[in-house]
């Protein structure tokens, strides 16, 4: 601890009042403070010894009330004041003799006061340190043997000694001092010097007054407690909002604001806000403009930053303190995107070396979380990464993070231009909110590196259309590599959801197969009357309260910038005014065809998983007709259907290729290169020259069964039986496979082989 005899150390408001009242001089005040800490005696006792006169009653009462108020905030419980509380000594004597022995009371500095008002089997116990865990465990152990419970309140040391004195034999003063020093209250409010505070600047009287108030020890302790409590609760921000008669202090945890402590009196708003501004190195005398600053605290292998922002309001300055803890890591993509296909598509586009990858959605906060999740998986040792953000949300080791003062383009442009010269591999821009920023990103930066950016939009198509209006569509088509859009749907309540059979219109509209229609859930939504009846009967769902939905589920669409979409964007830019409707339709159709993951297929997956309802999906997609969802776009089929068809296509093409390779190997005559025909594909038109084969084939062909035909040994060697069984199951699992021979078919050097696979219709 560094002490100084000069007035550069700030005094508390109580210390200033003592000096201003003429009770003590500044040097003797500093002497009293030092002696109090060295001897362990209370400050008031030391002051009276040095001055030789008692403290004025008005100052003593003010000091005590300030002391009680700060202790109440620090410990979060009530503190009693013997001056205003009626305490019965006889009842205390009975409780000590019957329940809590005096040696326990003195050892842990606690005393039973009375039985609780609600019941006679509960005690009210006053503690000098209400946060002492060992003392709490001891009292619980003692009272549980008497089948009693207890409630704790706080009491200051002087009041405790006054109550316990009749039961304790007199001890030497030196022993008292040692015990007092050992069991000091956690919050020592007797300090009048703030040894870690910066020197008092030469300022106006008004500013000096605010500074003295802000550095008053109770306020310092209170602010430190607020910051520590927010960190312990993993809050992301603290909101201090002055109202007409009180100061509201809330913290943001997740998506909601929760009270951090009870509202404080309006008179403490000024000192608390001044203290925060002082810690953030802001101008404490300026309360008419917004200011931004930062507080840094380190310890325990972690660093915590508090970003302080002040805003002038009608009732005074509002303060928002953002909490940035280095120990808290951003959510991973696995947590944000549980769907494997969506996550892989996102990661594949992020592996490209240059271009613009856009993340869009309704709220920028969730979008930046996606970008942070993606950056956290990058290796800063292999790729040079930089970010430019309005407000940092996480600390990413090895990544250059720059925070700008606002979303003004004048703040973003110089940083983006400097990034261009630093030869970065990846740049994250938290928001493309201005045309000049978009232009800089598209025209210059995205050609040299990969840009990850977010943009608020209703869907992926709207985002592309919006950017096309801000920059040249030709440049955008050349730079944009993909769009990932985040939609939000209500999540079905897992407690009260129920299985039902959807209407025929919805089954047809979404092409829902028979195997899935009996596993679709609906929400159990109740009106106000039904909710009241269910509550009276005790049958109301406690999770959703009859709403049918609880929370939200994310749905992602992924648009890949294909050559056809690039062409549509270029055509869109060259279209004339009279063709506005046609060009919009053409662009929308091109975007629809470029869906790597469509919102409809992703939404149906969530419906099949029971996470959302078909009705919610219908409301989410009101403009999609049956033809659009089923016929016009193959990619809009459910994901499991498209995957099965793709697998089947690959299998059939592989079998066909193997067949023709074997056919060429068995040819007795070598065909010259001029006469050699290209290998036919599965989609070629069938051509047969021998009508006799078809006549015999029609006699033995049964149209109700899947048929694989052949007479030559080459069919037996085409593949092993396991592959035939797999092909059969892929073609039609509920039909039998038979084999038909063609006895009159002979190998001929002049006739092409009969190809049974050309009879398979093209399903695409």
UniProtKB/TrEMBL annotation:
The keyword ATP-binding applies. GO terms for cellular component: plasma membrane. It comes from the Bacteria. One of its GO terms (molecular function) is ATP binding. Residues 75-165 form the Type II secretion system protein GspE N-terminal domain. Pfam families: MshEN (PF05157), T2SSE (PF00437). Belongs to the GSP E family. This is General secretion pathway protein E. It comes from Aphanothece sacrum FPU1. The lineage of its organism: Bacteria, Bacillati, Cyanobacteriota, Cyanophyceae, Oscillatoriophycideae.
């Amino acid at each position: 601890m560094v002490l100084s005899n000069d007035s550069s150390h700030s005094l508390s408001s109580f210390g200033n009042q003592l000096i201003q009242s003429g009770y003590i001089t500044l040097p003797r005040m500093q002497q009293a403070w030092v002696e109090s800490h060295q001897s362990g005696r209370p400050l008031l006792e030391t002051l009276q010894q040095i001055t030789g006169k008692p403290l004025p009653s008005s100052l003593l009462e003010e000091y005590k009330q300030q002391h009680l108020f700060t202790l109440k905030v620090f410990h979060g419980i009530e503190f009693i004041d013997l001056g205003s509380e009626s305490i019965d000594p006889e009842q205390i004597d009975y409780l000590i003799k019957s329940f809590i022995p005096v040696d326990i009371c003195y050892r842990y500095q606690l005393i039973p006061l009375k039985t609780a008002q609600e019941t006679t089997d509960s005690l009210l116990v006053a503690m000098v340190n209400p946060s002492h865990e060992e003392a709490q465990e001891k009292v619980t152990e003692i009272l549980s043997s008497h089948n009693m419970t207890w409630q704790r309140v706080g009491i200051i040391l002087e009041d405790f000694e006054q109550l316990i004195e009749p039961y304790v034999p007199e001890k030497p003063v030196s022993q008292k001092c040692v015990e007092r020093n050992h069991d000091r209250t956690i919050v020592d409010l007797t300090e009048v010097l703030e040894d870690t505070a910066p020197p008092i600047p030469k300022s106006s009287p008004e500013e000096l007054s605010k500074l003295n108030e802000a550095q008053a020890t109770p306020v310092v302790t209170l602010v430190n407690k607020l910051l520590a409590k927010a960190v312990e609760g993993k809050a992301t921000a603290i909101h201090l909002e002055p109202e007409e008669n009180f100061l509201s202090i809330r913290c943001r945890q997740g998506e909601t604001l929760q009270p951090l402590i009870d509202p404080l009196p309006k008179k403490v708003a000024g000192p608390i806000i001044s203290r925060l501004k002082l810690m953030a190195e802001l101008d404490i005398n300026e309360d008419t403009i917004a200011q931004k600053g930062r507080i840094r605290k380190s310890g325990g292998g972690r660093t915590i930053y508090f970003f302080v922002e002040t805003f002038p309001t009608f009732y005074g300055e509002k303060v928002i303190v953002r909490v940035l803890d280095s120990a808290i890591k951003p959510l991973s993509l696995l947590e944000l995107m549980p769907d494997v296909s969506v996550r892989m598509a996102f990661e594949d586009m992020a592996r490209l070396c240059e271009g613009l990858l856009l993340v869009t959605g309704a709220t920028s906060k969730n979008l930046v979380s996606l970008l942070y999740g993606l950056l956290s998986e990058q290796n800063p040792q292999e790729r040079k990464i930089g970010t430019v953000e309005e407000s940092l949300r996480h600390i990413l080791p090895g990544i250059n993070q720059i925070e700008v003062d606002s979303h003004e383009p004048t703040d973003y442009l110089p940083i983006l231009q400097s990034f261009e010269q630093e030869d970065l591999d990846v740049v994250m821009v938290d928001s493309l909110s201005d045309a000049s920023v978009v232009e800089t990103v598209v025209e210059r930066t995205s050609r040299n590196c990969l840009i990850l950016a977010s943009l608020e939009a209703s869907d992926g198509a709207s985002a592309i259309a919006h950017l096309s209006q801000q920059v040249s569509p030709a440049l955008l088509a050349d730079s944009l590599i993909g769009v990932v859009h985040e939609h939000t749907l209500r999540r079905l309540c897992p407690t009260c959801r129920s299985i039902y059979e959807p209407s025929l219109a919805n089954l047809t509209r979404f092409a829902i197969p028979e195997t899935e229609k009996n596993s679709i859930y609906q929400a159990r939504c109740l009106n106000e009357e039904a909710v009241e009846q269910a509550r009276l009967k005790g049958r109301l769902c406690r999770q959703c309260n009859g709403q049918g939905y609880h929370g939200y589920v994310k749905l992602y669409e992924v648009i890949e910038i294909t050559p056809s979409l690039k062409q549509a964007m270029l055509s869109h830019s060259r279209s004339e005014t009279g063709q506005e409707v046609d060009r919009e339709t053409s662009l929308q159709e091109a975007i629809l065809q470029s869906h790597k993951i469509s919102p409809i297929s992703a939404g149906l997956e969530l419906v099949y998983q029971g996470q959302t309802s078909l009705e919610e999906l219908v409301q989410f997609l009101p403009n999609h007709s049956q033809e659009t969802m089923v016929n016009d776009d193959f990619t809009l089929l459910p994901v499991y259907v498209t995957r099965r068809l793709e697998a089947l296509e690959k299998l059939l093409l592989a079998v066909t290729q193997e067949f023709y390779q074997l056919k060429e190997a068995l040819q007795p005559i070598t065909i010259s290169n001029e006469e050699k025909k290209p290998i036919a594909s599965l989609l070629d038109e069938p051509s047969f020259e021998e009508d006799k084969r078809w006549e015999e084939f029609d006699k033995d062909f049964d149209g109700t069964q899947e048929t694989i035909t052949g007479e030559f040994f080459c069919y037996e060697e085409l593949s092993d039986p396991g592959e035939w069984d797999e092909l059969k199951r892929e073609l039609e699992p509920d039909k039998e496979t038979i084999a038909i021979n063609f006895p009159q078919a002979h190998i001929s050097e002049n006739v092409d082989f009969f190809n049974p696979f050309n009879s398979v219709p093209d399903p695409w």
